[in-house]
Amino acid sequence: MAASEHTVLQFTPTQSSTSLSAKVHPLVIFNICDCYVRRPDQAERVIGTLLGSVLPDGTVDIRNSYAVPHNESSDQVALDIDYHHNMLLSLQKVNPKEVIVGWYSTGLGVTGGSALIHEFYSREVPNPIHLTVDTGFRNGEGTIKAYVSVNLSLGDRQLAAQFQEIPVDLRMVEAERVGFDILKTPMVDKIPSDLEGMEASMQRLLALIDDVYKYVDDVVEGHVASDSSIGRFISETVASLPKLSPSAFDKLVNDSLQDHLLLLYLSSITRTQLSLAEKLNTAAQIL
Amino acid sequence: MANNSGNMARSFLQVASTEEVAPSLRVVQIEGLVILKIIKHCKEFSPALVTGQLLGLDVGSVLEVTNCFPFPIREEDEEIEADGANYQLEMMRCLREVNVDNNTVGWYQSTLLGSFQTVELIETFMNYQENIRRCVCIIYDPSRSNQGVLALKALKLSDAFMELYRSNNFTGEKLRERNLSWVDIFEEIPIKVSNSALISAFMTELEADSPITQCDYDRLQLSTNPFMERNVEFLIECMDELSMEQQKFQFYYRNLSRQQAQQQAWLQKRRSENMARKAAGEDPLPEEDPSNPIFKPIPEPSRLDSFLITNQIANFCNQINGVSGQSFNRLYLMKALQDS
């Protein structure tokens, strides 16, 4: 079933008969890329196991992954099963809720050898998900696709299994929390402190507000066709500001300001107390 | 004399005889992968405190952390000790097979609101330091990260403190000699983040189109009350502990001065006795009597605890300051928005 040069089967997303979809956490992508960079020289691609859980509404939540050493030649694929089980046991000691949900491989399409590996994984898990991460950027972008195996049968006879694509949802929330600036560039000199992060956030907010202003101006002057849904959204947002009289609002703000100033004062006193106490403790001399 | 051929050519003997001085650790370089792993592990088990091992390379003055793995939660059972060691060996072996750097460079742990300066931390450091020349501890605070700040710190014990700890001597005199105060216990090392090119390519592509991210939502949130409340609560508790420690010291000093007064009195009595004896022609009694309990030296309480507590309090104060600063920004921003 495998050819000497990789025949890449590219599937266009057809209507999936199952409502399965996959959610991928950014850590998985990082893991896969890291394993790919560290792969042994003779291997062209990296294969590994995906861990995660199945959510109650049927989506598969892929949270972690690890690479499994494998040997691939033109007509056979050998996977280190012991290693796979050992790693699984070790990782489950830490987090027993993460179970195998599938496997991944780097490279664009689904090759012949993948079918054998998929079969192996389907012995471990009823319906494994096969995730491909294109580290070669063959289509000009890094495509991440997920497949499940669907059995094609004619009447009662099983003909073949087909890899059918399912939608992938990349939940980048954690990566966003850390900040894409830190994760994007090859080298960041230091982690931004509180105030710098605050400044960056406020600048972004300002940019957003400017954009909205520009848009509204354009629409009013007729440069851009107006979209009523956007208009409604904007008016809702503006209306969601609570209506307070200026004096009440000032009082609110001033109260909060005073609370925070009080806390600052408290902490300054504490620090003074600390240095005093330390001097007393160590400077006392016995005659 | 041998250098007149230029600095480039040094004889082998010269190179072999110069002692290599390890450059001091200046920067910890962490990979984005490690940060994400630490965050994921700490967040999953918060508020329980979890630990894990850091792997990487020690290069010159930079400590590179390239991978990490979490430790399972340790039960209090004794027989699980061997399991823990087995787990570690197994993980390192498995990671070695996929070409991950097999070198332990430290450990990470999560903390709650920054109260991590404990004696256990110091002991763990000493344990690690015996085997590894340079190790670092990374502290991650998941509760602070809800405020939109990446609360990651790299810590190391300062050398002076380590020597003192080994000799287990924390009296006031020794500390004055070394000029060591509570700020000198832990050294914070700046963190650099590095990512491989492949990852940056992926992240650049996967970045969402809108410029505002979840991080910003967290930062611009107005309510910080729960966080501040807990911070102040912890601060109060620590102050109580600090005052207890100070009372211990006061007690010690009072005892010491009382003992000295007793010693003086006894000495006077002895001297007058000796005078009487000399007048009677007998041998004078010795002026010291080690069996007398008032001469027993009172042990000075160790100052380690008070130092640690002081450190914690300082940390809390810093956090309060930081959050207050942020809140000020937010309040003024809100005011400006409302006015306009």
Describe the structure.
The complex is a heterodimer of chains A (287) and B (340). By secondary structure, chain A is α/β, with parallel strands linked by helices. Chain A has eight helices and eleven strands. In chain A, the strands form two sheets. In chain A, strands 9-8-7-6-2-3-1-10 form an eight-stranded mixed β-sheet. A two-stranded antiparallel ribbon of chain A has the order 4-5. In chain A, a hairpin with a 4-residue loop joins β4 and β5. Chain A is extended and about 80 Å long. The N terminus of chain A is likely disordered. Chain B is an alpha/beta fold and 340 residues long. Helices cover 53% and strands 14% of the residues of chain B. In chain B, β4, α4 and β5 form a beta-alpha-beta unit. The N and C termini of chain B lie far apart (77 Å). The interface between A and B is large, with 88 and 95 residues. β11 of chain A pairs antiparallel with β8 of chain B, so a sheet runs across the interface. Chain A: It comes from Hevea brasiliensis (Para rubber tree). Chain A: Its main location: cytoplasm. Chain A: InterPro entries: eIF3f, EIF3F/CSN6-like_C, JAMM/MPN+_dom, MPN.
